[in-house]
């Protein structure tokens, strides 16, 4: 071909592009790696899933760190290569706790990263959500990924598809591994061979089994815990009993420098609850009582989301697997008692030991079925059904004074206890003797332990070379400390045996027997606390259902005893006026009958008390003044008032005598007298009528006073409206 007909060469083919040595080297490895990538950072991500892998799988860690050299071979300078190894011993299932992975995403988002290197893609993420988030960011900022199989470009469709498959397989692989390991664990658990830390009172043997702690002092304390719970029937009673007797809990730590060494710690509620709920003390093996609820699990915190199952619902429950402290029947009885206590706790408005109420938490409203709360006002006690008022703004359902109800139920409790008084005295003597025996054994165990530690310190001092004073001085001080502790403990034991001998004396037995014969005196004794009475009430009673008649003093009481027996009773409560008494008509007839025979007011009061009549409010008996006031009120109602009350010559227009206005408004004279003292009504004393009160009340005032009488303070109101308490002008 001639020069005239030859086509000119393309500029791209005629003049070859000049490439840097780094770019040329990168092209030899992969054409995807360009100069734009080499000008940015290369990040090597290093991660192992658990502390065990970090310690044991050293080769895998070394391979990951060797990727630094791989990045240099691809053309990156050493200063451009960053190693992120902050996520060692972190699982790849979530990025919440992986600060290194979060830092990686931040660097990519800042358009600083050209290549991410990992030994395999599972090192970067085991979650498809985190994996695809990384791919999306890498595709946007043109960041490549590298593993042992090659280099991938997330912005390329084929590479993106392959990376997506790798992420899915990585997550599925983790699921398969976990599933396979879990099935093996279940297989082992069904044989009762999956053991963790030994609970209190047990030790783990070399043959991988749990046996009762060989230390007798440990055994004694654990058995004492179950005996005390059987006696007191509650965690609170058990804890107070242990604290009172200065009993400490034996613990062998699972971690730290003192691992496996016996330590004595103060008792606490959580430890006691775990001990009572654990079926191993009845010889049973359990596994699978702690499931994980995914809704409650917090990412990055492996111990969260756990839910506890009842011992009956465990995945594996094998009875008679270990040595036992208690029988299986006793264990189930303890669980029923704990459940019953938990059920009652939701009903109690005040716990045992707070307040003087005998039935706090046991009283139930017979109208709505809600628990009635306890309130104290000075020396007065009330049971009020106000749950509906508090929760829903309803009216208070019912309310009644609590002293009389407590007295009545207390008498029922004494009647229930009295037939077993002899058994009570024998049981009390037996319990005291048993308790003293346990205390004496515990003291002897402590003495044996301090004697052993003292002898061990002596032998250590005797075995050292006397010339080695650096060691001998320390051992000598330790021996002296043990000798001092030994002497102090001996003196404490001598005081204990002097105060509480093992056997009860004849006088102590006679005292117990005499107290059991007079249960009522023991019940009312000053040494018997409110907490003691409340504990007895909760042991015998399930609930007390009360229904107060709103129109009189009658109260229907249904007592539900523990065991299923129910008894029905009628009680009385204090009311505001005589007319609210159910026997008001009978009472008036009897008073008039006695008065017609010329009987004095004092004699009438004595006769009414003897015949069983009771006045309203909180008074227990009638007296002379009560009868006199009641007779005067009856005369006013019939218009047969005395001269001073009926004589209106000393009254101005629209004025009333105190008793007249009280009868007009149908309210107690005492209440109207209080209104005079606080200035809610205008009144004056009439000297001509022996200083009686004359009250001003025209038609508007009568209307205001009627509204004031009927007013009931609402929820949240602290004062009576001023328009009802302000007297009007005097009209003549």
From TrEMBL:
Positions of the Resolvase/invertase-type recombinase catalytic domain: 41-192
Originating species: Rubripirellula obstinata
Domain Recombinase: 199-344
Region (Disordered): 1-25
Entry-linked SMART domains: Resolvase
InterPro entries (alphabetical): DNA_bind_recomb_sf, DNA_bind_recombinase_dom, Resolv_N, Resolvase-like_N_sf, SSR_resolvase, Zn_ribbon_recom_dom
PROSITE patterns listed in its UniProt record: RECOMBINASE_DNA_BIND (PS51737), RECOMBINASES_3 (PS51736)
Name listed for the protein in its UniProt record: Recombinase
GO MF: DNA binding; DNA strand exchange activity
Polar residues bias (residue ranges): 11-25
């Amino acid at each position: 071909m001639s020069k005239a007909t030859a086509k000119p060469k393309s500029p791209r083919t005629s003049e070859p592009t000049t490439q840097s040595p780094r770019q040329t080297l990168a092209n030899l490895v992969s054409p995807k790696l360009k100069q734009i990538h080499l000008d940015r950072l290369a990040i090597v991500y290093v991660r192992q899933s658990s502390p065990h892998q970090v310690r044991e799988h050293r080769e895998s860690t070394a391979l990951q760190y060797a990727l630094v050299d791989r990045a240099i071979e691809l053309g990156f300078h050493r200063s451009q290569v960053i190693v992120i190894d902050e996520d060692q011993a972190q699982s790849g299932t979530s990025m919440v706790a992986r600060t290194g992975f979060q830092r990686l995403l931040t660097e990519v988002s800042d358009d600083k990263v050209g290549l991410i290197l990992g030994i395999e893609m599972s090192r970067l993420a085991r979650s498809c959500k985190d994996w695809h988030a990384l791919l999306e960011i890498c595709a946007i900022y043109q960041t490549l990924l590298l593993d042992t199989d090659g280099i991938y470009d997330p912005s390329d469709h084929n590479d993106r598809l392959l990376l997506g498959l790798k992420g899915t397989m990585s997550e599925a692989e983790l699921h398969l591994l976990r599933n396979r390991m879990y099935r093996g664990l279940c297989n082992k658990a069904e044989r009762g061979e999956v053991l963790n830390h030994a609970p209190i009172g047990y030790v783990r043997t070399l043959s991988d089994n749990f046996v009762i702690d060989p230390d007798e002092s440990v055994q004694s304390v654990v058995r004492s815990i179950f005996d005390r719970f059987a006696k007191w029937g509650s965690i609170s009673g058990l804890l107070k009993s242990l604290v009172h007797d200065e009993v400490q809990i034996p613990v062998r730590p699972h971690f730290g420098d003192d691992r496996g060494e016996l330590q004595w710690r103060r008792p606490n509620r959580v430890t006691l609850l775990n001990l009572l709920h654990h079926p191993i003390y009845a010889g049973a093996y359990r596994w699978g009582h702690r499931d994980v609820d995914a809704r409650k699990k917090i990412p990055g915190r492996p111990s969260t989301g756990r839910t506890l199952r009842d011992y009956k619902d465990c995945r594996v429950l094998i009875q008679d697997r270990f040595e036992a402290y208690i029988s299986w029947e006793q264990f189930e009885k303890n669980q029923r008692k704990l459940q019953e206590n938990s059920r009652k706790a939701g009903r109690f408005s005040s716990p045992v030991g707070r307040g003087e109420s005998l039935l706090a938490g046991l009283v139930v409203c017979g109208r709505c079925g809600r628990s009635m709360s306890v309130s104290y006002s000075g020396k007065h006690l009330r049971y009020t059904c106000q749950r509906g008022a508090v929760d829903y703004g309803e009216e208070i359902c019912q309310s009644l004074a609590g002293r009389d109800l407590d007295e009545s139920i207390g008498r029922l409790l004494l009647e229930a206890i009295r037939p077993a008084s002899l058994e009570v005295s024998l049981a009390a003597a037996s319990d005291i003797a048993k308790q003293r025996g346990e205390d004496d054994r515990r003291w002897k165990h402590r003495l044996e332990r301090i004697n052993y530690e003292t002898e061990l310190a002596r032998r250590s001092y005797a075995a050292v070379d006397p010339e080695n004073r650096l060691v001998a001085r320390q051992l000598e001080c330790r021996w002296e400390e043990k000798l001092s502790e030994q002497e102090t403990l001996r003196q404490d034991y001598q005081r204990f045996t002097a105060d509480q001998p093992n056997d009860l004396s004849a006088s102590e037995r006679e005292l117990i027997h005499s107290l059991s014969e007079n249960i009522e005196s023991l019940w009312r004794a000053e040494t018997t606390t409110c907490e003691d009475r409340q504990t007895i009430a909760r042991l015998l009673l399930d609930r007390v259902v009360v229904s107060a008649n709103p129109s009189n003093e009658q109260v229907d009481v249904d007592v539900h005893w523990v065991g299923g027996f129910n008894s029905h009773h009628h009680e009385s409560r204090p009311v505001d006026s005589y007319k609210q008494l159910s026997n008001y008509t009978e009472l008036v007839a009897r008073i008039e009958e006695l008065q017609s025979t010329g009987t004095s007011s004092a004699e009438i009061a004595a006769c009414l008390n003897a015949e069983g009549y009771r006045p309203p409010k909180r008074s227990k008996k009638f007296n002379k003044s009560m009868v006199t006031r009641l007779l005067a009120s009856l005369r006013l109602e019939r218009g047969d008032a005395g001269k001073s009350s009926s004589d209106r010559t000393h009254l101005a227009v629209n004025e009333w005598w105190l008793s007249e206005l009280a009868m007009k408004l149908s309210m107690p004279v005492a209440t109207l007298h209080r209104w005079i003292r606080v200035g809610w009504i205008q009144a004056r004393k009439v000297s001509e009528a022996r200083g009686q009160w004359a009250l001003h009340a025209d038609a508007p005032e009568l209307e205001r006073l009627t509204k004031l009488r009927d007013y009931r303070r609402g929820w949240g109101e602290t004062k009576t409206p001023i328009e009802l308490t302000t007297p009007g002008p005097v009209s003549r």
